Amino acid sequence: MHRTRNDLLKILAGVGLVMLDPVRNVLADRVEDFTGRLQDRYEDVIDRANRVSRNIRGRNSRPTYPALDNGIALIVGVGVGLGIGMLLAPASGKETRTHLSERARNISDKVQDFGDRVKDRFSERTTTTGTYGGV
Fold it and tell me: Apex CA 120: angle with CA 115 and CA 122, to 5°?
C-alpha cells in the first residue's frame, strides 16, 4: 500500500506538471512581453534624458564648459539623493523636514562663521615701517 501511495503521488505530480505547462508558457510569454515593453520605455527615457542634457549643455550651439556640466550634475545628483532619501526615510515627513531645516541652518551658520573669521583675518591692519621686511 505504501508503494501504491508513492506511485499515485508521482502520477498526480506528473499530471499536475503537465496541466501547469501551458500556464507556465502563457506566464513566460506575458513576462517576456512586459520585459520588452519595459526595456523599450527605459531606452525611450534614456534618449529623452540625453536630448535634454544636450539641450541644457548647449552641445549643438556653443562650446562646452566642464565645470558648469559638473556643477549641474552635482546639483541634479543632490536633488535626486534628497528625493530618494525622503522617500526612504524612516521618520515622518514633518520630522524629516524639521531635521533637514535644522541641519541646513547649522551648516549655514558654520559657513557664515567661517566667512566672518576669514574676513576678520584679512581686515586686520598691520603696521609696517615702509622698509623692506617690515622692520
Answer: 95
